[in-house]
Amino acid sequence: MNRETACEAYRRLLVQYPIVDDRRHFLNFHNPFETLILTILSAQTTDRAVNAVRDTLFSRYPTPEELARAEPGEVEPIIKSIGFHRTKARHIVETARKLVSDFGGEVPQTMEELQTLPGVGRKTANIVLSQAFGINVGIAVDTHVRRVSKRIGFTDSTNPAVIERDLMALFPHEVWRDINYLLIRHGRAVCTAQNPKHDRCVVADLCRYCRELRAGKPPDEE
DNA sequence: ATCCCGAGGG
DNA sequence: CCCTCTGGAT
């Protein structure tokens, strides 16, 4: 797919899934530490649920040093309402301890260093880098990004590393983070694995998968 | 019932 | 590759 078509798809998805509202809460993060902790807590949960516990959490543990001194067991009840609270309590406490012991109490600014922190995978590291430091290192390819990119025709590959390179080549680096977000949202709401909702898809006319459907060709998906 | 901007462990 | 972790919103 050429860049103009890709950009047109990007513009339409941006209208369909407005980012400004959703991102407002990220912009209100006070510092990299809060950004990191809240992003870890955000995994598989809603922003609303995380926002509900942030004041209590940070009034009690405002810095890595203070969170590092806590026991996971005492953090657990504070974040109970977000789900996965046992795992996440352990992750954020151990992350705080590692910030203190390995990184001088600061949040590291590279993909590799961030991913050594408990509870921080590629996705979380990506979000922290872009939100806390404005560094757009790349595009995190999860199952949604993978499926949607292949269907629309942003890539021909199913290899996550190749998909990432294709997307990075197709879009200007200022919008990588947006693209990541938009493809995920589109994959969840419309371009679902089973029974994709073509009638509600704003890029259907640009989509390779839809074109093949209309041509009567069964699109091959692996 | 189904989903949430996943990560870690087997 | 698979599985588990978890409560809340819709």
Protein described:
It is a single chain. The chain is built from 13 helices and no strands. It is an all-alpha fold and 222 residues long. It folds into 2 domains: 3-19 and 139-214, Orthogonal Bundle (Endonuclease Iii, domain 2), CATH 1.10.1670; 31-133, Hypothetical protein, domain 2 (Endonuclease III, domain 1). 35% of the residues are buried. Residues 21-27 have low confidence and may be disordered. The structure holds a DNA duplex (10 and 10 nucleotides). Residues 41-189 form the HhH-GPD domain. It holds the Pfam family HHH. Keywords: 4Fe-4S, DNA damage, DNA repair, DNA-binding, Endonuclease, Glycosidase, Hydrolase, Iron, Iron-sulfur, Lyase, Metal-binding, Nuclease.
The gist of it:
Its EC number is 4.2.99.18. This protein is mainly alpha-helical.
First and last CA, distance: 20 Å
Global geometry: elongated
Average pLDDT rating: 88
The chain-level structural class is: mainly alpha
The CATH class of the largest domain turns out to be Mainly Alpha
